[in-house]
């Protein structure tokens, strides 16, 4: 059985972290993970991901929620939009929003929104606040503390028990949208009567789909909302949000590791399966520490059984 889906760059990178290459890469591929029931291959240029094997359909389903909206035509639209931020945007007073933890089996989903006024942009940038993925943990801690002291912010953190409950009846993208909307609305309330020139969300899906997820919510923050992949490069507020979210997530990981009695690794690779299997063997409740809908759960259960 074979299934091919098209994804955005953000998701592609996330998949690359999850599907760790363990076999020969075909030409043009960025990753290829060969598993027992499914082999997953991601193609760098087209951002097409191929699932092969008896579990192809099932594994592709994990990502399929928004795939119908991820046709090449719309990806082009998104690129145009990215290029089309208003001139001088980087100097505006912007409320930025970003999340971490979506690709990590252990730990929370954390969204942070941070308001950076025009007169703070330079100082925040000069601190070295940039994409949290490029910073070390000690740097994150130092920078986050400075950002949180100087800028209004709000963090929405879903630790695994709450995450597992909320993901029951919605996709991860829908859950992310709800968290961003909540964090943004909280900061907007905190900074009143000031109003940001714009709101920038680090794009994880089509804006149209994002707002679809928010149907029925009150309020829906949609005025002056822009989306951009690599949003941290478009405005310091998204970089600051990325740093604050990572900082909070780190703290939660430490706390959860302590509760678990072992260091919980980030990501979703084989080491994660091993640690999850150890938790199972120690009769720990995985749902307290991990995002159970990931395929790691089944892999860990299998490992736990075979290592007995
Ligand atoms: Mn992001």
Instruction: List the uncertain runs.
Output: 66-82
Largest sheet: 5 strands, mixed
Strand content: 15-25%
Order of helices and strands: EHEEEHHEEHHEHHEHEHHHH
Cα-atom radius of gyration: 20 Å
* Heterogens: manganese (II) ion
Helix content: 40-55%
Q: Number of helical segments?
A: 12
Instruction: Average the pLDDT over all residues and give the rounded result.
Output: 90
Tell me the structural class.
alpha+beta
Biased composition (Basic and acidic residues): 65-83
Protein name: Ribonuclease HIII
Main location: cytoplasm
InterPro entries: RNase_HII/HIII, RNase_HII/HIII_dom, RNase_HIII, RNase_HIII_N, RNaseH-like_sf, RNaseH_sf, TBP_dom_sf
Please, could you describe this protein's structure?
- The chain is α+β, with helices and mostly antiparallel strands.
- It is built from 12 helices and 9 strands.
- Strands 7-6-5-8-9 form a 5-stranded mixed sheet. A 4-stranded antiparallel sheet has the order 1-4-3-2, covered by helices on one side.
- The longest helix is centred in the last third of the chain and has 25 residues, at 236-260.
- The model is unreliable at 66-82 (pLDDT under 50).
- The structure holds manganese (II) ion.
- The site of manganese (II) ion has 3 residues, from strand 5.
């Amino acid at each position: 059985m074979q299934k091919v889906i098209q994804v955005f760059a953000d998701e592609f990178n996330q998949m690359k972290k999850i599907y760790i290459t363990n076999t020969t890469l075909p030409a043009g591929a960025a990753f290829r993970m060969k598993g027992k029931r499914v082999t997953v291959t991601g193609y760098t240029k087209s951002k097409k991901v191929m699932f092969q094997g008896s579990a192809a359909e099932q594994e592709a389903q994990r990502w399929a929620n928004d795939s119908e909206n991820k046709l090449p035509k719309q990806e082009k639209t998104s690129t145009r939009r990215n290029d089309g931020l208003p001139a001088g945007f980087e100097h505006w007073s912007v409320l930025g929003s970003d999340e971490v933890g979506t690709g990590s089996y252990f730990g929370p989903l954390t969204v942070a929104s941070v308001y950076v006024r025009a007169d703070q942009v330079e100082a925040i940038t000069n601190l070295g606040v940039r994409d949290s993925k490029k910073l070390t943990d000690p740097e994150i801690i130092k920078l986050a503390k400075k950002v949180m002291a100087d800028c209004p912010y709000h963090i929405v953190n879903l630790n695994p028990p709450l995450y597992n409950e909320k993901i029951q009846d919605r996709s991860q993208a829908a859950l992310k949208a709800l968290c961003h909307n909540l964090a943004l609305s909280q900061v907007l309330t905190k900074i009143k009567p000031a109003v940001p020139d714009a709101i920038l969300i680090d794009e994880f899906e089509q804006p149209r789909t994002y707002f679809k997820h928010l149907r029925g919510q009150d309020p829906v923050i949609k005025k002056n909302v822009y989306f951009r992949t690599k949003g941290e490069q478009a405005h310091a507020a998204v970089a600051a949000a990325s740093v604050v979210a990572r900082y909070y997530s780190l703290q939660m990981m430490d706390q959860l590791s302590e509760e678990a009695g072992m260091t919980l690794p980030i990501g979703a690779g084989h080491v994660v399966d091993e640690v999850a299997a150890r938790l199972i063997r120690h009769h720990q409740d995985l749902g307290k520490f991990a995002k159970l809908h990931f395929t790691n759960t089944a892999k860990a259960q299998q490992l736990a059984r075979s290592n007995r």
